[in-house]
Amino acid sequence: MTARTPAIGESLSPAPALLQAAFEATPEAVVLCSTAGRTVVTANAAARRLLPAARPGHPVPALLPHHGADSFQAEHEGRQLYGMRRDLDDGHHAWFLRDHTEQLARTTALEVERSRTAFLAEAGRRLSASLHLRRCVRTMVELAATHLADAAMVVLPMERRQSTWTRLLPGLPVEEGTLHEPKLGEVPGLIEALAGFPPIPSRWLDPAQVPGWLVPAGFGPLGALLVIPLPGNAEPAGALILARCGPDAVFTTEDEVLARIFAARAGAAVSAAVLYREQVDTTAVLQADLLPPELPEPDGFELTGSYQAAREALRIGGDFYDVFGPAGSSTDTVIALGDVCGTGPEAAVLTGKVRQTLRALRLVHTEPATMLTVLNEVLLQSSRQPRFVTMVIGSVHRVDHGRVRLELASGGHPAPLVLRHDGEVEEVPTSGTLIGVLPRVVVRPATVELNPGELCLLYSDGLTEARGGTTGTEQFGESRLRQALSECRGMPGAATVERIRQLVSDWVRGGASDDIAMLAVRAPSRTPLSLRGGGAPAQSPYVIAARRGDRRPRNRS
Are 546 and 426 in contact (CB under 8 A)? Predict the structure, then answer.
């Protein structure tokens, strides 16, 4: 018998079995409920997997709200369920259920990963903010105790059979101390971590073996311990100890991975801080010999020096001055002021070499002009690349009537200036070729005498070439220097040098400048005598003949 095809517009009345088959085939979980009797009419297979209690003829599971709620979200047998209610007619409604367990797990994992990423970013930023070792370690324990554990402790590598440690416990400030070598072996895994071995999993460490000095009694029962090495630059940078309190406390695998990543970044920061400290210590040792010396207080004349490096942070550079006291049978004091080409560490190294050479030459009582000649040969033989020096060397000693005599020799350096008692400024007629360039140098020495109260100033060209003024590019110049020196008539040597230094600083106004060195020799003033001439200084036969065209010293009459 052939089935009849329904006419157009004729409704199809499916059999109950067909409706049930369609209901079961629906992928979404659906529970059909009787509103009046609050019983389950039917539930498809998807719904029964989520709610086994949703069986036809049985009461609606308590998980499904009865009145006033169109949706719900709840945990059921380890699953996160979400449901929406739809009224079908006056006596029936349906619940459409969804399992959000995997989605929530992914969301939670994403939030955890974002949190860990944010923590590591913060750790990297804070740990790299300082190269001070102590501050870096304190930052490390603060980060670890806040994000990784209840308590954190950092132990640095041993030095002289003891280690320094830094610890942070809940509610307490950061603590610091030292541990002797035998104590380190009392903490499980600490010796291995300090030696750089791979970290031991937390489950292998027994918190009960932790000594009392590691975690005080007020911390509470120790439930989990984690000891991680801090990787350093070619050698371990220390160890990080993490502790959690409570009998159920644990470090999960994810916790240990995060702690190791943090330890790697922290170890790099500690290594950088240690390296920086070593470099600072080394620099300090080297600077101690390269910095200008403390000037002696010779009998019969005053010495005043001033040095300002182009790079203030380095404190040393290419300009220098030095003073060598009497040696052996010689009673003279030798002074030197020079300028090595360049600035910074390379110039400072050559400066040290020059000063040591001069010190050795002083011991053999070499004259200033000869010292420059020998120094030229030394530099030509020892320099890997051409590096020249300009300098002035002088021999200073007292003569009669309170005068001071200087025998000066120059090698390519600005001529010293002499401030007379009447305020006149004269230039010492000494000159010569650069030191360290030519096989043979030419030096023209000069001798000058200072009457009481008069001063001789040795300076580097960084003073006259300092740029500033209204335009910021104009040089201070020799004329301004002469004028400034003239205004210092009658002032002590220290006040004269300080005034000139301040004038140049005001001229530059904080701008960039070259190294500046000054060294002043002053004959001390004496009380005028009520004798012939009213105690006026006698004319010295070595007064610089700046007024004469030949610029040669006068002969003693």
Answer: yes
- Nearest-5° Cα angle at 210, 204 to 211: 160
The string of DSSP codes covering 208-249 is GG--TTTS-GGG--EEEEEEEEE--SSS--EEEEEEEESTT-
Across 275-309, b (16+ Cβ under 10 Å) vs e yields eeeeeeeeeeeeeeebebeeeeebeebbbbbbbbb
pLDDT (tens digit per residue) in 444-489: 999 999 999 999 999 999 899 998 888 888 999 999 999 999 999 9
Q: How far apart are CA 508 and CA 510, in angstroms?
A: 6
Task: Name the residue among 310, 307, 321 with its Cα closest to residue 466.
Answer: 310
Count how many Cα atoms sit within 13 Å of the Cα of residue 455 in the half-sphere of its side chain: 30
Spatial separation of the C-alpha atoms in residues 331 and 327, rounded to whole Å: 7
Instruction: Quick: pLDDT tens for 234-262.
Output: 889 999 999 998 888 999 999 999 999 99
C-alpha separations of 271 from 197, 264, 266, 284, 508 in Å: 17, 11, 9, 20, 40
pTM of the model: 0.61
d(CA 393, CA 19): 115
* CA pair distance 409, 413, nearest whole angstrom: 10
* Sequence-distant (≥ 6) Cβ neighbours of residue 540 within 8 angstroms: 403, 449, 450, 451
- Output the six-digit token pair for 382: 């020892």
* Per-residue DSSP letter, 1: -
SS3 assignment for 373-427: HHHHHHHHHHCCCCCCEEEEEEEEEECHHHCEEEEEEEECCCCCEEECCCCCEEE
